[in-house]
Specification:
Length: 70
C-alpha cells in the first residue's frame, strides 16, 4: 500500500488557491495509516510520481514574501 497526493495547480500564489487542508487535517488523515506507509505526489493523473523528502517541507511566511517583492 502507498498513499498518493494528487497535485493540482490552482493559482500563482497561495492566496489564489482557496481552501487547503491544515496541518491538523493532514495529521488526522495520515493517522489512519501505518507509520511506514510511503507517500508520493501524483502528477498528470498518475502518469508521473514524485517522492517527498524531509527537506522538501518548508515553512513560508506569506508576509515575508510580500516584503521581498516590494
Amino acid at each position: 500500500m502507498m498513499i498518493t497526493i494528487e497535485a493540482h495547480r490552482t493559482g500563482y500564489s497561495p492566496d489564489q488557491c482557496g481552501y487547503t487542508v491544515t496541518a491538523g487535517d493532514l495529521i488526522d488523515i495520515l493517522s489512519q495509516y501505518d507509520e511506514g506507509t510511503p507517500i508520493y505526489i501524483s502528477n498528470d493523473n498518475g502518469y508521473t510520481y514524485g517522492a517527498i523528502h524531509t527537506y522538501d517541507i518548508d515553512e513560508i511566511n506569506p508576509e515575508d514574501e510580500e516584503e521581498e517583492t516590494e
